[in-house]
Every structure is written in C-alpha cells, then in structure tokens.
Amino acid sequence: MSVTAAKGFEASGVVAHLKSTGAKDVALVVNRGRSAAAAAVFTSNRAKANPVIWSQQVVADGQARAVVLNSGGANCFTGAFGFQTTHATAEAVAEALDVSAGDVVVCSTGLIGVGDQTFRDKVVSGARAAAGELHAEGGLDAATAIMTTDTHPKQAVVEGAGWSVGGMAKGAGMLAPGLATMLVVLTTDADLPAERLDSALRQATRLTFDRLDSDGCMSTNDTVVLLSSGESGVAPSDDEFATAVTALCADLARQLQGDAEGASHDIRIEVVGAVSEDEAVEVGRSLARSNLLMTAVFGNDPNWGRVLAAIGTTQATFDPYDVDVSFNDVRLCAKGAPDRPVTEVDMTPRALHILLDLHAGDAEATVLTNDLTHDYVHENSAYSS
Amino acid sequence: MSVTAAKGFEASGVVAHLKSTGAKDVALVVNRGRSAAAAAVFTSNRAKANPVIWSQQVVADGQARAVVLNSGGANCFTGAFGFQTTHATAEAVAEALDVSAGDVVVCSTGLIGVGDQTFRDKVVSGARAAAGELHAEGGLDAATAIMTTDTHPKQAVVEGAGWSVGGMAKGAGMLAPGLATMLVVLTTDADLPAERLDSALRQATRLTFDRLDSDGCMSTNDTVVLLSSGESGVAPSDDEFATAVTALCADLARQLQGDAEGASHDIRIEVVGAVSEDEAVEVGRSLARSNLLMTAVFGNDPNWGRVLAAIGTTQATFDPYDVDVSFNDVRLCAKGAPDRPVTEVDMTPRALHILLDLHAGDAEATVLTNDLTHDYVHENSAYSS
C-alpha cells in the first residue's frame, strides 16, 4: 500500500538533519522499470519554488527516472543559489543512480526563504544517502521523510487487473485549489505512454486534490507526479486507468483532509442544483473560504446564515432566496427562510456534511475542507519560530 | 463629534431587549432640516437582508428623513414575514415623526435568520420609544445602541467652512470589501442636492470602507447612509465636500479596524509599483485574506514567504522574482530573494506596516486589515451560542 507497491520501484527515506527533530527528511523514489514514462501537475501559484521550476522542465519530455524530496525547507525565493541547489540535488541523485539529472524530479517543502549553503550541503548529502538505502520495501520510509506538520504518513494503493497504482502524500496546511503544500508521488506498473499518464493524472487531480481546500491558501511547491515502470506488461484502458488513479487520489486527499493542521471537523460541502460543475465548485469554495463559517463549525454551530452570506459573494447563477441548506441531513433553510430548528443538528462528530441546493440547474460538485480552530491559529502562528 | 454634530439632526438610542444583555439596541437618527437630501451605499453581497432591500428603495429618489437601526438581529433570510417587519418598523417611525415611511431608512445587524414575531414586536416598540427620546445631544446614545461585538462606540466629525459632517459606525467582524457588517450613518448641514451627496459618498467609501478587509467575509446588511439637512445654508465645492467626507470615513474606518474582533495587530498593507490602482488593491487584498500570513502576524512572525505565496495567486501584472517586501520598514525580501534578517523587525507594536513594491508600474493602494488570532476564533465560534 505504498509508492513501492507497483512492480519496478524502490524507495528510501533518510535523516539529513534538515529537521531540527532528527526525523527523516529526505526521500527518494526510483523507477527501475523498462519504461520511464512520467506525468506531473504543479501548483498554479505564480510564485513557484525552484524545485517546481526545475521539475516542470524534467517532465516536459514525458520521462523521469527518480523523484527526490526533502522536508525542512521549501527552497523558494532563495535566489539563483537556490536554483543551483535544486540542480545539485538532481545531479547527486543522477550520479548515484547512473541516470541523467534531466530525469530527476525534485520536490521540497518547508519554510520559504530557507536555502543557504548549509541547506544545500544537507540536501545533497541526504540525496546521496537516500540513493544508498533504496529498497523495494522502502515506501513507508519515504512517506515518513516527507512529513512536515503531518501527524502520520499517508499511503494508498489501488489494484488493477494485473497491474497496480500506489502512492504517498504529505500536506497538512495550505491545502487549496490548484494543489497546495502537497507533495504526492504516484507509481504504477501499468504500461502506458506519458500522454495517457498525463491525461489520467489531470482527470484525477481535477476531481480530488483540486477540490480539497483546507484554508484557502495555495503553496509555492505543490507537485503531484506519476511514474510508470511498465513492469506489469499490462496496458489498461483509459477509463480503467483513470478510474483507478482517481480512486487513489481521492483516498490520499481524504487522508490529507483528515490530518489538516488543527482541524476538528472534516467537512464535505456538496453543492447540487447548479447550472454548471464549475459554478458548483465556485459556490462550494466560497463556503470553504469563509472564516466566519469555518469558526462557527469549530464551535459546533450549524450557522446556515453564514452559508448564505458566503455564497452571496459569488458570481454563480442562483437566487439567494431560492436556496436550501442542510447540515448533516437536517434542512435548516428552505428557499432562503428558516426551516428546521438548528438544535436538531448534531455537530459533535468530526465528519460534517453541508448540502446546498441552488435550485438553478442539474450540475453538482463536492468540495472538502476543514474548520478554523484554535489549533490552526496556534500551529500557523508558531510554525517558523 | 457625532451624528448630531451638524445642525438639524436629532438622535436617540433605547433598550428594546433585543440584546440579552439589556444594553441599548435600537437607534434613531432624524433629519429636521429644510432639506431631506440623502445618499447611500449598500453591501455588494447578493444575499441582501430585508432592511437593505427596503432601504435601497427608500433612497432611490434621493430623499430620506430618518434612519432607524437595530442590533440584536439581522432580519436576513427571514422570509416574507421579515420584510413585513422592516416595513412595520419604518411605519412606526413615520407615524411617530409624521413623515412618509418611504423616507425612513432601516438598518439591522446581528444574527441571520432571526426575525420572528417577538423580534418584530421588540423592534417596532423600540422604534416608537426611540422617537420619543430624540434630542440634539443624542448621538452617543445612538452610536452605543448599534454596537454588537464592538467594544466601544465609534463617532467622528469633520468641520468645513461654516458647515460640518459627522457620523457614527459599528462593525467589528466581517469587515470586507464592498462593505461588511458595517452600519454607518453620516449627517451634514452642507446644503447639497442628493446627486452631489451620492458622488462624494461613493468616492469616500471606495477609498476607505471598501479597502478595509478584516477577515475577507462580506455581510448581508452593510449600509452607509449620508443625510443632509441643508441647515448651514452653505454649499461647499465638490472637492471640498468629498475631501471632508473621505476624511470622516477614513477616521471611522480606522476606528473599525482598531476594534476588529479579536485582533492583536492593525495592519496597513501598502502596495506600490503596480500597473493600476485596481491591481494594487487586488494584491493588497490577497495578503489580507491569507490565513497563513495573518496567523503568522499574530505570532509576531514577519513571514515574507507567505506574502509572496499569497500574491502569486493573483492575476496582477508583476514578476514574483522582482518583488520587494518590507515589514515595518525593514526590507526582508529584495527581488524575490532574502534581504535583511527577520530578526531586525520589531513585530510587538499593534500597528504593522507591510510594504510591497511590485516594480511593475506607478500605481499604488493601501488596504487595512487585522491578524487572525485565538480571540477571533473564539468570538466567532461562540457568537451565536
């Protein structure tokens, strides 16, 4: 159930002393298979970290042999020196594995602005050490090494007919559209060319990671990469493969949501009756990003008024006085007026389902988010100190 | 220094038992002057409360005689019954003052969804009682009666040459663009027709209340209304009047910022070097709305990396690698790379100045906001319980 589940992959995780805790902080995933097909999606933030700028070039040709990842520093806004650090990290892996540096994806996570000579030395030596520790059971070590404020490693696998796709993920805050502080490595032994990997990956991320909006903030470093070893010798259909990758990404996205910084509720916002899927997503996001609603949820207050106040700021097609709002299946607002009493809603479970019927069309979408809590404020005000 | 500073106005504030604390909760401001010219701006939220829908019609003809305001219930999403409550409130004031109900602006603030028969009875009898308490020194009572989570009343006055303009405001959370949970009544004895009041008011709010973005949330009830009695007999020039109204609104906006729910920092975000004022505002707002940045500020952490991550999500014209960021005049980031050490910034004062130079043009704008604190989470998670 990891990044080494599919045939042809090895992984490792080592201590490079980037984290002050002495925990593992450099991970490596290597594709030893007959194929080196790869696809990736990156943050849509225009402020991109050096590893993102590098890795976009690496996967441009649809080929990659390895992914090296570090926690303990984002290597973002660290100047030309920082980009050279990313290059040096890729070179170190390339030399150790006897592959081209141009086939080594680099991912970093941690504080922005951290990337001095000490950082470089640690990352590069960590990358070399990780290359010496590779093994077919190394998935958990790798998933552990990429954790930042995550409380546990995230892994998943989906089995196909004679092939599989597995993966690991990290990301605890800044889970926002277009991906955010999220590093995900997916591996498969399905034998598919890069363009089919790319198509399946984009379809999957659009419906999963892109709809996970924990705090509305978008990272500079997000990367989701999919490598194929081709070692199963099986080429599933596009539908079959995309379905599996989507299921895998959905599993990992739920794990990320469940471990979001300081959260006390995992909220599933389901918007139905929209005129288009895009508008349903827009409306869902407006709830996820309402600090007033998200603090109310933390206080176990099914505050449907804040739902309506939030959606009124969108451009989506609906009449605010024709909207129904339910919390955990209790309809509190019907056609913009109070319906069942709020005391009927049990807000104590961690899982919360907010259902919004816009009565404007037939489209729908679901957005996942978390509440805004004291612990969120604490973790994020103390993060860099 | 209040809503009764200008000649021709009376005001009052009474206890109508809408607030469980027994504090004043219904206010009335009446224009006794020879002119009844009026202008107003309202929330841009599409989810508008009943008093907003009513009051937009009242001021459509540029005339108003009175403004009645209640705290203790927003009368929003309360169905047809709620709209009838607003109408009944205006009728009660009209009858007591012998004016037309169509010249009575109604403003409400408090919880959405509250508006039953008890609420109506209290608001209507409160409005009648307020009409019986009107006097020329009643400004402070009125400013006190509109408070919700405000810790103190907000009033200001600006003196012109032979005329003046004064006002009161409430609003502690949900201060967001397009106005938010903000009720403001401005009064002047300058003798100007409604269209000139309107022009000055829109100019002033665009530069003041519209650039106050405390938590990114936008209310359903925001109203800023300006009444002229004409009693000074003086007609200032457009420039002179707009300058005074802008200064008045800026004063009230700073008072609102200084009393924002749970805030520990008053943040002035100054964006320079933008290609247009609109883009400068867009960039400034992206910082104001970054929970990660606003929690960092709460933790006295001058986290310039989160500034860059936030602005990278905008569509404004600039190169993220050509941006300078200063906190309290210490340049921490120059051209997208670390500059002075963060330890040089003293974050302990309540006032914080974040300066962002986009190096893309000559336009600039300032946005005011507050940090995201434990007290914000506490107040907003407990607000309705």
Q: What does this molecule look like?
A:
Chains A, B: Keywords: Acyltransferase, Amino-acid biosynthesis, Arginine biosynthesis, Autocatalytic cleavage, Cytoplasm, Multifunctional enzyme, Transferase. The structure is a homodimer of 385-residue chains. By secondary structure, the first copy, chain A, is an alpha+beta fold. Chain A folds into 2 domains: 250 residues, 4-Layer Sandwich (L-amino peptidase D-ALA esterase/amidase); 117 residues, Roll (Ubiquitin-like (UB roll)). Chain A has 10 helices and 15 strands. Chain A has a 6-stranded mixed sheet. A 5-stranded mixed sheet of chain A has the order 3-9-8-7-6, sandwiched between helices. Chain A starts with 8 loop residues before the first strand and ends with a helix.
Short description:
Chains A, B: InterPro entries: Arg_biosynth_ArgJ, ArgJ-like_dom_sf, ArgJ_beta_C. Chains A, B: Pfam families: ArgJ (PF01960). The structure is a homodimer of 385-residue chains. The first copy, chain A, is of the alpha+beta class.
Strand and helix layout:
The structure is a homodimer of 385-residue chains.
Chain A: E1 9-14, E2 26-31, E3 38-42, H1 50-58, E4 66-70, H2 79-97, E5 104-108, H3 117-132, H4 139-145, E6 154-159, E7 164-170, E8 183-188, H5 194-207, E9 223-228, H6 238-258, E10 266-274, H7 277-288, H8 291-298, H9 304-311, E11 324-327, E12 330-334, E13 337-338, E14 351-357, E15 363-370, H10 374-382
Parallel strand pairs in A: 4-5, 8-9, 10-14
Antiparallel strand pairs in A: 1-2, 2-4, 3-9, 6-7, 7-8, 10-15, 11-12, 11-14, 12-13
